[in-house]
Amino acid sequence: MQDETVNIIEANGLKFAYKEAGEGPLLLCLHGYPDTADTWDEHMPVLAQAGYHVVAPYTRGYWPTQIPEPAAYANIDLGTDVLALIEGLGYAEAVVLGHDWGALAAYTAANLAPEKISKLITVAIPHPRVLRFTPAVLWRSRHFITYQFRRLAVWNMKHSNFKHIDAIYRRWSPNWDFAEQDLKAIKSSLAQPGVVEAVLGYYWAFAERRSSGGPRVSGKKTSVSTLCLVGDADGALSLDVMEDTPSAFTGEYRYEVLPEAGHFLHREAPERFLELVLNFLNE
Fold first, then answer.
1. How confident is the model at residue 238 (pLDDT cuts 50, 70, 90)?
2. What pTM does this model have?
3. Is the peptide bond before 34 cis (omega within 30 degrees of 0)?
4. In 3-state terms, what secondary structure has residue 12?
5. What is the arrangement of strands in the sheet containing 7-11, beginning at the earlier edge strand?
6. Paired sense of beta strands 53-57 and 26-30, if any
7. Could you tell me if 105 and 61 are in contact, meaning their C-beta atoms sit under 8 angstroms apart?
8. 235 to each of 142, 175, 231, 261, how far by Cα in Å?
9. Is residue 39 a contact partner of residue 31, using CB atoms and an 8 Å limit?
10. How far is CA 25 from CA 54, 80, 179, in A?
11. φ, ψ at 165 (rounded to 5°)
């Protein structure tokens, strides 16, 4: 259900729902898949206490944010959303923290307008420039392939009471003993009309862009100071690729590995996650 504290802002031609806490410099928190802005509920008070105006939007297509018509979910759309939200919230720049698809949006925004991103924190996703679809990566990320069977993917999602989401969490975060309550927000969002198609649209747009050889702004080298956090038990990510990631940056960059944490490491190990984030912000 929509939280009563959710606000609405128009940015980049869409009405975005968002949560917020605190005052100070803007810290924009972007969720990934399958997740919602609620993923940051535990972190927002701590980041607000540290002196930030923390804003967590529901990204395009995720209820209660508007579904774009016509469908538009390419990285360029996600990146321009970030920049439009910063401007719409009345800021010239922001710290951007992104997980999964939120990380890809963050990389794209930083490459489009580095002067508007003061610091970048990405979670569970290496820089797109070094992504290589080796057999091992394809196996871990096989959802990218299965989601291309569009009607079947939509049917499977809708007609299984969203049990597919449970399977994703178990595979990607094998050490996390999550509860049904932890998945309530994303399942409630997916249950709204058009949201399943919108969420899968991120994957459809990704495949279309790769097959067309279109522009890859997110794959350019990044100059913004960046911290990337990953878990060593991430079932969706091969840590081997992280060794090549520094070559994708012209500015300060480092990554930290959280032991025994999976893809949703910010929810699995929130105290350690916040410690690393705050240390980076205070540098």
1. confident
2. 0.94
3. yes
4. coil
5. 7-11, 14-21, 53-57, 26-30, 94-99, 117-123, 226-231, 253-258
6. parallel
7. no
8. 11, 10, 9, 10
9. yes
10. 8, 20, 34
11. -65, -40
- Please state which CATH number belongs to domain 7-281: 3.40.50.1820
Q: Are 100 and 35 in contact (CB under 8 A)?
A: yes
- For 169-202, what is each residue's pLDDT tens digit? 999 999 999 999 999 999 999 999 999 999 999 9
Structure tokens at 60: 């395009």
Q: Extract the tokens encoding 103.
A: 């990380």
Question: Is 253:226 a contact under the CB 8 Å cutoff?
Answer: yes
Domain ranges of the chain: 7-281
Contacts of 51 (CB under 8 A, 6+ apart): 22, 24, 25
Residues forming a β-bridge with 54: 21, 27
Please tell me what DSSP assigns to residue 249: B
Tokens of 247: 């070559």
16-26 residue pLDDT tens: 999 999 999 99
Q: What is the mean pLDDT of the chain?
A: 92
